[in-house]
Amino acid sequence: MDSLAQSFGRTVVIAPHPDDEVLGAGGTIARLAAGGGDVQVVVVTEGKPPAYGPDMVARIQNEAREAHALLGVSNTHWLGLPAAALAETAHATLNAALFRIFEELRPKTVLVPFVGDIHVDHQLIFLSSLVASRPHQHGFPERILAYETLSETNWNAPYLAPNFVPNVFIDISQTLGTKAEAMRCFRSQLRDPPHERSIATIEALATVRGATVLTPAAEAFVLVRYVT
Q: What is the per-residue pLDDT across 113-146, written as a single tens digit (0 to 9) for each?
């Protein structure tokens, strides 16, 4: 096991919707898995009728399974809460679902969506992730990092909502290609450039984040908590 994977320990990535985990942390997931780490993904929501038909839901889930296999994800957990409707879901329900996951998996590191994302699902999942990992609970996560999601993190209201100001950078120079291939699995979600959900834009952001710390490519995070 390499040093990054050993430091992170069991890592759980919380994805509000399938593909958020790849957009925000796909290169890091691939690097941890390649280094011998145990990385598991929790997909919190699922499309519900009438907005989402069963065929579309099955298609996206299959795309996610294909992407996760490429990245080296050891297990994917599907919570099945209603997509784009968490604001109408009892907050205690979301808290409890994530608490059960953390209690079962005992992750050392958790990657979560950023609280300032424009999508309310992301905001609520961030808050519930913190509730589920409060440090007075047995086996709480030592490290919590918030990732950025193209088309969500960058569309908040400057100075009115929390801004994503990263202070942790993970070198993904060797796994950016794997991240791009994993994103290509999401054929239903990919768009042509210059759309944010395009391979070109994903690679461009990785280049910018890498240049910040003098590496060819990186993913950026906000450190929420680190206990050592």
A: 999 999 999 999 999 999 999 998 888 999 999 9
- Describe the crossing of helices 20-34 and 176-184 by its angle, rounded to 10 degrees: 140
pLDDT in tens, 21-71: 999 999 999 999 999 999 999 999 999 999 999 999 999 999 999 999 999
Name the token pair of 184. 């290509």
Nearest of 33, 24, 18, 207 to residue 117 by alpha carbon: 24
Tell me how far apart the alpha carbons of residues 28 and 147 are, in angstroms, rounded to a whole number: 10
Residue with tokens 């995070």: 221
What is the rounded CA–CA span in Å between residue 45 and residue 59?
Answer: 15
| Reported pTM | 0.97
Which residues 6+ apart lie within 8 Å of 23 measured at CB?
149, 150, 151, 183, 197, 202
The matching CATH number, chosen from 3.30.460.80, 3.40.50.1000, 3.40.50.300, 3.40.50.10320, for 3-226 is 3.40.50.10320
**75 to 10, 42, 47, 96, 141: CA distances (angstroms):** 11, 9, 21, 20, 18
